[in-house]
Write a structure and sequence with these properties.
Elements (H helix, E strand, L loop, with lengths): L1 E5 L2 E5 L3 H14 L2 E6 L7 E7 H4 L4 E2 L20 E3 L2 E3 L2 H7 L5 H8 L3 H7 L8 E4 L2 E4 L3 H17 L1 H8 L6 E2 L11 H15 L6
Helix pairs in contact: 3-4, 3-5, 6-7, 6-8
Length: 209
């Protein structure tokens, strides 16, 4: 194997048929990976595979229903991920969230069955009240308690729905974001992403920050 040193580049050139076969297999298995060079021995050095670039460099994942990689879709609030919260069933976290805008239980029950853009659009024409009631307690819209209610719903979703839980855990330690064209004033994307990462830490047995 011939080694060529160039500015910021290390070039490997196989010279025999056996080396070409080994190099071809290595190239396919290591495509897109990051390597760490350890030359502390003084007489030589070694390259250590740190894994895929996304994982090794902890590249952020933007979790948005109609924009992210399909493998991350179950994480999104709009995904079809049935769960139960305080004795009531929901098809999606979005259905839970949008339903809070309505006073009548029949309206909340109707929206609870929705997911995807149907759930998102269900509450768009509904004026956002300054406060609402849920399970016998009053909440001020946009308050800490309001956001904690959403966190409770998300915890229930990831605890009860295996598909959502597996997708969240598959993000490893990569930072999560929720950048959308029109950010929510009630629960901004940065807060939503923080919820997901807190829940992920808890699922991994770590202490939530």
């Amino acid at each position: 194997m011939r080694v060529l040193f160039k500015p910021e580049t290390l070039v490997l050139v196989p010279e025999s048929e056996a080396e070409r076969e080994d190099f071809s297999a290595w190239r396919e298995s290591s495509a897109g990976h990051v390597f760490h060079f350890d030359g502390s021995a003084g007489k030589g050095g070694a390259l250590f595979d740190l894994g895929s670039r996304e994982e090794a460099c902890r590249e952020p994942i933007n979790i948005v229903f109609d924009q992210c990689d399909p493998q991350w879709l179950p994480i999104t609030n709009l995904a079809l991920t049935p769960f139960t919260l305080r004795g009531k069933s929901y098809m999606s976290a979005e259905g839970f969230w949008q339903g809070l805008k309505f006073v009548e239980e029949r309206d909340r029950a109707r929206i609870a069955r929705l997911w995807g853009k149907d759930a998102k659009h269900a509450g768009q024409e509904q004026p956002q009240p300054r406060e609402f009631e849920y399970a016998g307690a009053k909440y001020h819209v946009g308050s800490y308690e309001h956001r904690e209610l959403m966190l409770e719903a998300c915890r229930a979703k990831f605890k009860q729905n295996a598909e959502a839980r597996e997708a969240l855990l598959a993000t490893g330690n990569r930072p999560l974001t929720h950048r959308v064209r029109r950010d929510s004033k009630t629960i901004p994307g940065v807060v939503m992403a923080e919820f997901w990462m807190r829940i992920r830490a808890g699922l991994n047995g770590e202490q939530e920050e």
